[in-house]
Amino acid sequence: MSELFFGAFTVARRYPARPARVFAAFSDREIKQRWMGCEEVSAPMIERLDFRVGGREISRGGGQDGAEHLFEGRYLDIVPERRIVVAFVMHVGGRKISASLATVEFTPDGAGTLLTFNEQGVYFGEDGWAEREEGTAAGLDQLDAWLASQQEAASA
To answer: Global pTM?
Structure first.
């Protein structure tokens, strides 16, 4: 029987874009598909993004280990340009590795946005919150790079 590990983490990022733009990066399927992912899972494909309270999100991609990584989430609370709360389960290679609750907050910060991502979870077996925190931070860095590329394109 696998061991259970409980954990929580918070990752914060400042983006040079207004909350509406950063929020759209989570709520718009086409935009989210452009930046989503992390070092462990390259170019996950969003299969479903029903962005409303009670709606579901499903995405999957191949990991560096060759195993499929599957995200299955349900939106519990959405306040446009302010907050997203999602409960989700992660599977790797057909095995459930975690169940989590994540809150993403968007706070105006001058001409930009302070994004605060908080996750609380239970991890089944070897996948722990330290690895999830690293992957989340890498994904939010990708969002930063995508937002910067959009600003450069708009000013060119």
So the answer is: 0.90
Condensed to tens digits (0 to 9), the pLDDT of residues 69-118 reads 899 999 999 999 999 999 999 998 898 999 999 999 999 999 999 999 99
Residues shown for the chain: 156
Q: Which long-range contacts (CB under 8 A, 24 or more apart) does 105-113 make?
A: 106/19, 106/22, 106/23, 106/81, 106/82, 107/19, 108/18, 108/19, 109/14, 111/16, 111/18, 112/14, 112/15, 112/16, 112/17, 112/18, 113/14, 113/15, 113/17, 113/18, 113/19, 113/21, 113/22
